[in-house]
Design brief:
The structure is a single chain. By secondary structure, this protein is an all-alpha fold. The chain has one domain. Helices cover 66% and strands 0% of the residues. Helix 4 packs antiparallel against helix 5. It is globular, with a radius of gyration of 18 Å. The N terminus is likely disordered.
Length: 243
């Protein structure tokens, strides 16, 4: 199973100009799928599920990395603030849009324990509890996604054509309730897509979007994602804030 390049899901590779006209979407960095079920993209059905599942897995792997004891001990309140803001504003609404099993209450309680801890020992213990829950969440959601992929892939291939499934997926991406999450969900998916998919599949995804949506994604939403939610997660690895 391929592993994401360190730091990529949180920030993406360095920006580069696209062929032809100037684009704000960064150059690709191929790593491959992190799925235990779909280890290689063999057809459109594989790609259709990875489009929705890989952003979740990549974020969880990056979260597990940045919240490790090497970077996070619970003593820096600003790190807890960055984590919780990322979780509340981005990760929870995007993941809960797809997974009904995802619950935020326990995560919120664990983060609050870090914030409210008084002594150094309490802060370290609260941080340890939060890390334990992150690992539990990683295992739970990863196993759930694997079960979905194993069960759904044969059904998709048997009962849907590629065109029918793409129309359904596009409706989920662009229609309500996805409409209100579009500016967050599409750049999140594109960042992950550039990790596991071929250049042709990345181009096909962008081409499948309405022209106005594609323009906003490439020139506004992606930059906002990289400099906003993704940056918050990446900064947890710093020893201090850069401002």
């Amino acid at each position: 199973m391929a592993q994401p390049a360190e730091g990529y899901p949180a920030g993406g590779p360095a920006p580069a100009a696209a062929a032809g006209r100037r684009s704000r979407v960064p150059a690709r960095l191929i790593v491959g799928p992190t799925s235990a079920v779909v280890t290689e993209v063999n057809d459109w059905a594989d790609a259709s599920l990875l489009l929705f599942h890989e952003p979740i897995r990549l974020d969880l792997l990056e979260l597990d990395h940045v919240m490790s004891p090497a970077f996070y001990d619970g003593l820096s309140g600003w790190k807890t603030g960055l984590f919780y803001k990322w979780f509340k504003a981005y990760f929870h609404p995007l993941v809960s849009h797809q997974l009904q099993i995802f619950a935020t209450k326990r995560f919120k309680v664990a983060a609050n324990h870090v914030i409210l801890a008084q002594s150094l020992q309490e802060q370290r213990q609260a941080a340890s509890d939060l890390r334990a829950y992150i690992k539990e969440l990683l295992t739970c959601i990863t196993e759930h996604l694997a079960r979905v992929e194993m069960a759904l892939l044969p059904v998709i291939r048997e009962y849907f054509s590629e065109e029918e499934w793409q129309q359904l997926a596009l409706k989920v991406l662009l229609g309500p309730p996805g409409k209100r999450l579009r500016s967050k969900q599409l750049p999140w998916m594109l960042a992950a897509l550039r990790v596991w998919a071929s250049p042709d599949r990345v181009a096909a995804f962008r081409a499948s979007l309405p022209r106005t949506t594609r323009f906003r994604l490439e020139y506004f939403w992606y930059c906002s994602y990289v400099n906003g939610a993704a940056k918050r997660l990446r900064l947890i690895k710093n020893d201090y804030l850069p401002w």
